[in-house]
Every structure is written in structure tokens, then in C-alpha cells.
């Protein structure tokens, strides 16, 4: 089935969808530009900038939570990058900057928190819960199998019926 323009309905649909996608991309392009980081937030000294990026790559974006502040385009990540660069420009050590961030936001700010009793418990809890559940199920099953369950006593009606059946 062809139209006067020689196009099939499928071809016309593809052209319409393509035009819509291109039209939407023109309107959405300015929003994508907002995700690009501002070069003015970078430090003029390349060594300081490299240190700031290294520190920022160890800090978790509190909005995204699975990205470093260097990789995130969230507003809070931008603010934290600025703070890190201010501390680097003041001449503070990496350790001092990390301590300041941890004091302000807790160990959650670190993408890889230091090994401590808390982190060991946090990572071992699923395994401990699984082992506890398996242990409870095992001992519950063994106790049920080991203790015979006595049947309930016969009622008077059942006793009479049993007596009648045994006489026959």
C-alpha cells in the first residue's frame, strides 16, 4: 500500500519519530550544558589542582552517593569541590582536608571508609544474619524431629467406635 508520495506508512512513521527526537534534542541541549563543570572552579596551579582532584575523587557526593564529588554535577558536589580547593590553596595537607570533611560530614563522606570495628560489623552483618538464620532453622528442625509428638487422647465417641471395630 503506497501513498501518492511513494512512502509506506512505516517509512512515514520513522521520519516523524526521527523529527521528534531531533526536535526534542534541540530543546534539551541547553540542559545538558548545565552538567558540564565550570572551568573557573579549577585552581591555577596544576599541582594543587591535581591534589584537589585526588582528594575529591575520595569523597562521596552526598546527593548521588555512588559517585565522587569530582564525577558528580550536583550542586552540593560543586560546593564541596570548591571547599576542597580552598583548603588546598591554603596549603593544608591531604590528611587535614580529609579530617575536616570527616569532622563535618562523618565517615560516610569517604568513598572507602577506614577499616574499623563499625565497618567490620557493617560488612559482616549479612553473613552473620544468614548463619544465625541457618542455625536457628537447623536446630528447630532437629528439635522437632527428636521430640515425638503424642497424639491427643481419644474422645468417648472415638473409644466406642474403636471398641466396636475391634469386636468385629
From TrEMBL:
Localization (cell): Membrane
Any one GO BP annotation for this protein: cytochrome complex assembly
UniProt GO molecular function: metal ion binding
Query: Which residue ranges does the record annotate as region Disordered?
Result: 148-168
Which residue ranges traverse the bilayer? 120-139
CDD domains tied to this protein: CcmH_N
Instruction: Please provide the record's keywords in A-Z order.
Output: Cytochrome c-type biogenesis, Heme, Iron, Membrane, Metal-binding, Signal, Transmembrane, Transmembrane helix
Composition bias type Basic and acidic residues, residue spans:
156-168
Instruction: Give every CcmH/CycL/Ccl2/NrfF N-terminal domain span.
Output: 27-165
| Gene Ontology cellular component list | plasma membrane
Q: How does it sit in the membrane?
A: Single-pass membrane protein
One family from Pfam that matches here is: CcmH
InterPro entries per record: C-type_cytochrome_biogenesis, CcmH/CycL/Ccl2/NrfF_N, CcmH/CycL/NrfF/Ccl2_sf
Stored PANTHER family: CYTOCHROME C-TYPE BIOGENESIS PROTEIN CCMH
What task does this protein carry out?
Required for the biogenesis of c-type cytochromes. Possible subunit of a heme lyase.
The entry sums up its family as follows: Belongs to the CcmH/CycL/Ccl2/NrfF family.
- Spell out the protein name for this chain: Cytochrome c-type biogenesis protein
Species of origin? Acetobacter orientalis
- What are the leading ranks of the lineage? Bacteria, Pseudomonadati, Pseudomonadota, Alphaproteobacteria, Acetobacterales
